[in-house]
Each structure stands twice: as structure tokens, then as C-alpha cells.
Amino acid sequence: MEEAEELRALRQEPSGRRITIGREDPNDRKDESHTTTTTTNTRWGTLLEGCDPKRRLPILTWIRKYDGADALSDLIAGVTLGLTMIPQSIAYATIAGLPSQYGLYAAFMGSLVYVFCGTVREVSIGPTSLMSLLTLEYTAGRPVQYVIVLAFAAGLVELAMGAFRLGFLVCFISVPVTSAFTSATALIIIGAQLGNLLGLPRTVDGGFFATVWSVLSRLAESAAGDTLLGIGCIVLLLALQYLPRLVPATRNRPVHRALWYVSLSRNALVVLLSALLAHHLVTSNTDGGKATAPFRLSGRIESGIPAFEWPVRDVTVNGTTVTFPQMVVELGSGLVLVPLVAVLANVAIAKAFASDGVVDATQELFALGLCNVIGSCFRAMPTTGAFTRSAVSHASGVRTPLAGLYSALLALLALGVLTPYFYYIPRATLAAVLIAAVASMLDLGIVRRLARPSALRTDLLAWTVCFAVCLVQGVEVGLLCGMAVSLLEPLRHWVGGSVSTISTTLSDSAAVLRCIRPEVGLLYTGVDRLRTAVLAEVRRQPSLPLVLDCERLVVLDYTAARALRELADEVARYGAGPLVLANVRPGWCRALELHQTDEGYVFKRPEPASNG
Length: 612
Hints:
This protein folds into 3 domains: 66-449, no CATH class; 462-494, no CATH class; 497-603, STAS domain (Transcription Regulator spoIIAA). 58% of the residues lie in helices and 7% in strands. The chain is built from 25 helices and 12 strands. The chain has a 4-stranded mixed beta sheet, with helices on one face. A two-stranded antiparallel sheet has the order 1-6. Strands 2-3 form a two-stranded antiparallel sheet. Strand 9 (546-549), helix 24 and strand 10 (580-582) form a beta-alpha-beta unit.
């Protein structure tokens, strides 16, 4: 996935002026006042723009230009997407340890809400493998109400991130960490589905290695029917995936197009064929008057959409009432990690498919938050954008987000009419669908690229740490560890700071002076490095004037400001003259108590006490 949103934490841009030694233009103060007024007006304008209904409901903008060609394209794309979404949603619910209908609830509400609030026509909101696995991590062994509360709380966090424009937070998750996280997630899901693929009873929930070891130690107990069906479904899914290559478009375009649609619908076809096979075997085989099948089936699923129910309520667990605040506390770090991962995935997918490459990240946060908040009122699990489904939508020629309406109607049709037939869907088939879907998430080739001499070693270390910890301790811990390691390199530059020294001459004379230029920022941790560089120059050539160029500084904390004054005193004691500061921002001049001279800015000195 690509980076999520451009970092906007630093409101002030560094000064673009070239270094100037001498008096500042007197109009600068007037410009500062004008800039402050302009900034205030801009902020009010941004606030009013954020409340514009057309901004928060993008459908009000594009629906005016909607025509018959758009409707036909969206219908084809929506139906194609729905045929992919329904079997995936059923399968993803099983990853989260939920009955299959909860995946359909999420698919229906996510698709429906995004029609009105979404900005990227290709994005498909619904259950995903990442969200399902994170949901399992935080709600395993707990009542379903915990899942609903997690979706509700995640939606509120996403709305808050949109309101406070915190989308840039996903920039702290680097590409290597994202790759390691998704690759480890894919392996964990594949390992968890091996039991269903082989017809084994529920495996041990003790991490990836414990699950795989449990499966390997019980291979002798595998059910022949489930194993053959599961492997056969994986082979069929892979064959259907490459089906369009049999007849290239240049040879016979209509046939290629037909094969392409068959390939896109491969999940639905495999599930349908497996369910028909199971239904035939169940109705034709009876054991003592009871119908049986040679493989395990999904079981009964509730039909219909549940009634609206506000998620903020208590739940009874083993005769004990658990309040809503207690459930929120028990979810712990999931309240942050689940929405953070959801935002990362959704914004990255939106950027990948946006036609002009520009994404309104704030609106996408609002849309995702509303999908989860409204979905939780109808018992939906946490949702986000799905890359595979978005790719299907893009390849199907989608024109507007209205295609999601047809996908939502198909999900509603499945919940209202087809749920009795979901009973016959074999679990081995759902496991095959999941394994085939997440196999593409494995990105082990990045290790070779990160190991090249030109790459940063911290990137390889971050990938390795995140991948290993995800498999051993869980994806939430692995993600945090990977983020921590990947931040080492930027922290090294910010915390330690870097200083460059140049020699220059005054424009109106041949006098030579030394210019020391701190890079990026000057924080308390980088004060010693600057002090060492300045004093080294003073000792080397004490007779030359010394200038501290603040042109590239974007941040200055209190400790560094105090250290600058003390450093100026040290320079004066060496007899090198005053420490002159150039290109200082007007606001910093007041904070540092600087005095303007013909040479530049110097620190004000207390007036000597009179003897009289």
C-alpha cells in the first residue's frame, strides 16, 4: 500500500528567503499582521467549507450528471462486485468467529452508506481479512455485542480523525511495516483455515505456530471429503482466475470478455457449485432417517436485516451484567488499532484508484466512520475498503459510487431469500475462498529489495520485527513494534539534528564570515550537537564573525531557545563577538528576545546597573 495522506502537522512553511546579514525590511511586521489575518480568515473558510452538505454528501454533486450510460455501467459493475462480495463476506465472518450473516450485515450497510458519502467510485466498503482478524484478536471468546461495540467505537474514532484532520497519522506506518503486517496477516489466516480445509475440529487458538503445529499433529484425523473438496476448490479458483488468458482479447474480444466475467465471479461460482453438491449429497444420503454429508457444512443462518438497535447498551454474560463502558475498557488498544488499520487500508485504496490521484482524505474518514457507526446499529462487524473488491469494481467499468447500491441489494437479497441455502455451503469451500483471496497479500519479495545496499537497514529491520512479532505475539503487537522500529530513522534526524557550516562573504564588502545552519528542527536533544559545532568554529577561527542561519528551522522548543542564549554568552566569552542570528521568524524574535542590529539579530543584554 502507498502512503496514506500528506503530512500537514507543520502549518508554517520554512522561510524561502536567502540568507541576509543586515537589517530586516520594516514592512515585514506589517506583512506578519496581514498574514495572521489571512490565516484566520482561511481557517474560518475551511471550517465553513467542511460543513457544506455537498462536501459531506458527494452524491449531491455527481447525481445531477447521472445518465443512462452511467446507470448501465454501474449495474454491471455492482452485480459483478456483489457476486464477489457475498461469498467473501460469509467467509470473512468465519475468520472473526462470527455466524456468516454478520459478514453480510457489514457488506450491506457498508456498501449502502458509501453510496452517499464516498468520493472514489471504485472503493468497496465491507468486511475484509484484516478487519476480521483484528476483530477476532479483541473479541475472541466474548459475546457478539463486543464486536458491535468495537465497530461503533472504531467508527467514532474515524469520525473524530476526520473532524480533527488526523489522517496524516497513517503516514507513521511505513511501506515495509505495511507489507510485513499484511503478509503476516495472510499467513495467520491461511494457518487458521487449514483446519477447516482438512475437516479437523476447531484448532488451538494460540498463535500462528501453535495453530500450524496443532494441524500438523492431527493430519491423521483429516476428513477425506473436506480435504478433497477444499483442495479441489483451490485448484478451481486458481484455474478460473487465469481463465481469460486462454483467449486473448486481440484474438476474440467477445469470448475474452465472457471468460473475464466468469473469472470475476469465480468465488460465487465455486460456492454455488459446492452448495449444490452438498445439497444433492445430503438429500440422497440418509443415515437412520437423518440426512448426512461427507463434509462439514456451515449450518443455519439467520435471515433478514436486524432491526435498528443503538449499540450503547449493556450485555449479560454468564448471568453478570457488563456495562457499555466496561466493554469499551476491555477492548483496550483495539479502539485505536482497528480504526487506524482501517483508515490506512481505505485511504491507500482510495489513492490507488482515484482517477486524478487526489483523494479527499478527510471525507473518506467521515465516510468510513459513518459506515461503521451506522453499520453497528444493524449488528455489523468492523469494515473498511477491500483492495480485491475495489479492483473488481474498477475492472468492471464502474462509473459512480452508485454501483454499491446494486451490491447492497444483492447482499439484502442473500439475507432475505438465500439464507436457508447457505446451510449447505461447505466449510472447506469457504476456507478455500479465503486462502485463495489472501494468498495475493503475501509480499515476501520485498525482503530482497530491502536487502539491497541502497536501501535503509532500518526498513529491513522494521519488516523483520513486524513480521516476526505478528506471527508470535499477534498482529496488534507486531504492528506497534514495526512502527516503533521504522520511526528510528526519522527520529535520528529530528532528535539528534544535523548542522552544516559554510563560509560566505558580505554583499557590500569583502569581509568573510562563517555561517552555521541547523537543519529541520532544533529540539532539546540536538542542543549539544549545535553547541559543539559552534564552539569548534569559534576555537578554529575566533576572529571571523559567526552567523547562525535559521532559514531551515521549522521547530524550536523552550530548552533549545534557552540553550541558544547560553551559547551566545559562551561565544562572547571567547572574544568572537556576538552570535548573530539570520532569517529568524518574527514570532521567534519575540520568544528569543532578540534585538535587531546592522549585522542581524542578537540577544538582548540587561542594562548595566548605575553606580549613582
